[in-house]
Amino acid sequence: MSSRSMPIIEQHSTCAHCGLPVPPSLQKAPPAFCCNGCETVFNVLQRSGMDETFYRLRDASASRTLFRPARQKANEPLMEELDTDVFVESHSSVLDGGYHRTHLYLDGVHCAACVWLVERLPGDVEGVRAAHLNLPRARLTLEWDPSTTKLSDIARWLNGFGYPVQPRVDGEEAPESREERHLLIRMGVSWALAGNIMLLAFALYSGLGKSDLGLYTAARWASLLLAIPAILFGGRVFFQKAYHSIRVAWRDRSIRHLHMDTPISIGILVGFVSSAWATITGTGDVWFDSVAVLIAALLSARWLQLRARRLAGNSTEQLLALLPTLARRIEPDGTITRMRADDLKPDDLVEIRAGELIPVDGIITSGLSLINSAVLTGESKPIPGSTGEFVHAGTTNETGRIQVRVVSSGSQTKVGRLLSWVADSKNDRPRILGLADRVGGLFTVSILALALLTAILWAYLDPGNIAPHVIALLVITCPCALGMATPLALAVGTGRAARKGIFIKSESVIDWLNHVDAVVLDKTGTITVGRMAIEHIAGHEESVLLAAAIESESIHPIARAFEQYAEGKTNYAGSEIVHHPGNGVAGRVDQKHVRVGSAAWIGRAPDHLKQDLLDGIQSGNTTVLVEVDQIVEAVVVISDPVRENASMLIQEIQESGKSIILCSGDHEETTARIGARLGIPQSACLGRHSPEMKRDLIEKLSGAGHIVAMVGDGVNDAGALQAAHVGIAVTDGSSASQFAADAYTTRAGLETVAELFRESSGVLRVIHRNLGFSLLYNVGGGILAIAGFVTPLVAAVAMPVSSFIVVLSSIFQRTFRQVDQTP
Amino acid sequence: MNILYFLVPLALMLAALGVWAFVWSVKSGQFDDVETPGMRVLFDDELQEPSKSDETEQINS
User: Fold this and answer.
1) Mind telling me how many Å the CA of A761 is from chain B's nearest CA?
2) Contact A177 B29 (CB under 8 A)
3) pTM surpassing 0.80?
4) What is the predicted pLDDT for the residue at A12?
5) Interface confidence: ipTM more than 0.85
6) DSSP string covering A366-434
7) Residues in chain B within 8 Å Cβ distance of A226
């Protein structure tokens, strides 16, 4: 970048922060912005004098994903959770000088500039001693002093720059370190031993024996000494698994339980024991090099696989703050105490203000408000709640202050029970075996049969050579390439997917995805945007802008739809605004008297708008009238809009032979109407499904023999995501669904889901290609060994070459290709 | 060729030294994140507070 200061401003049409095009309505003298989020971040950066380095670093390093404008609102319940003593105690370790260390996961970090900005924390926020960001894992390690600084202040600082803290934590220790480090050490040590054994083997292959018997013997003994730690330390992983699988197979009397590690262990052990015997007795061939390389290569494949899985999210992580943790209890004397929601008892009274999450299941005792239960039920339209109505924890109190009498709190609430079910059943889903593992038993049996055949054959041909030929067969058919075929292809595939914002937690997902024949889609937030917006206007558009001016002060979802519509289009300001709860809003704009509200409140619509009003009401959408100076000017239909290209992507999924079921907690008519628009048959549109019903639906489908994929985004889908063969969470933030799902995307919408289906078949093709080649190699090697052509030298060449081909085939797979993204 | 009786064990000892160094670097967490440290090179030096180095140590331990 030639100029050091703000290189992007020169072009008027792109956003000064993110470089996306600026919509026409926001065009102005530079710096221009594509949205408010970008403008805020730009200003914050400039005020704190960090702008220059930030933009320079961002341009200098390739961005990992599309640069996303910042989200501004902090997750309030999460902020409260972060400040509780319980959180500080259980998720941080105490350091010297009163400092605590904790790990936070951040959203939206993806390039060098993000690292730089986040690591400015110690200089910018008092009480923070060190901040260390691990970019691939998006994990921030923080050392701060709880007595001077609140964790939520740090989180708000991060949020201000567009890096919201994710509501997930892991235990005291970094989760990946133990297992991954151990495996990495095992792998490195194995490669070092294998390399040295190979060097000695080169000497032996090049004819050392004939010239110098002393060196020849010494080289064989040195190889043996090096091979012992390779077998004991490196090979232990395989022996343990093989032993376990043999025990299970014996118990169940079924060879199908024999794991792929069984033939691997047989090959390693036979190679080692026969070589050791040959060394001690001074006769016969040694296979130390083949055995050692085999162990190192297989450990490498496993380490890659583990690493790919770790990046996609760890099962030990816990999800936080889905329930608000603090509540305002009204004491008998009328005063209000702030306390933990978990400590509330039935019949306590709590106060909930407008815009807050409801912390408990309970009954409204006073007040009137709109309750949005989208997070729990998927219903996009808020419903009025008044005295006597039951409200659930986790839902949002949209408009007014209410008092609620507690019925149950904490894990006893509806959402608490749902989440504890997800957490409990997280680990007891029956593990399905990988493709290679499934042939493990068959493979073992075939090899043993072949060994018997070889023994019989050579008993006739040359009884003195039975043992060497059988050993050669067992060593060369040791399934090195076969063992690497699946993990490597999957590790590369999932790694690439992760770069595109698709995180696959377990390898079996790829396998299942190719067999899925029923896809259950959630509606709110998945197919639709999950937010109210103006869908259709009949009449004067100008009047809608006037209406937006008087709606701008309200936090009602309908008001927000107006606000969003008018954003950047108008400078009208409303005055004398009066809210009429349940009916609408009235006020004065530009010398005119404006009213917005339901048809029942405003009155009759003029003849030319009557049909539009009727259509709007019949469509099941919220329909309001706009009246300017006693004349009804417009009919506005407000709905939760369907995402762009949803219909195309649904068609793509349908064309690949999968049936689609739309399942939503929303009203039947709304669900059916959206289904009809997307070409989903009416019989497959199911409305009014509670989280439990969704889960039951999935279980019913899989009971009927279907392989089911569930796509959802909210807490209400978590149970269903967990129950499905493949649960895919589509969310641009973090939620319980991400925790429950097998795969999740960081981009909302169905695009990533279609891609996941498309590309997973590509990954499976690579796996099949690898497996086919490996089997070919094993069959070829087996034939050579039976014919008596396999010597240690042949094995030393053939085995690494076969593995290498599998590695190349995996690395150069053409799945999850990066399309050009302009950052 | 008798020199090999000395050279091969010597080479193996050097290899052992390499293995030890590798194990140490893994255990001190240097392989936990191989991406971010490369980016820190790009940052301006003014940010490096004097106490930074020992803190990094602590985080990695």
Assistant:
1) 29
2) yes
3) no
4) 47
5) no
6) E--EEEE-HHHH---S-EEE-TT-EE-TT-EE-SS-EEEEEEE-GGGSHHHHHHHHHHHHTS-SPPPPP
7) 12
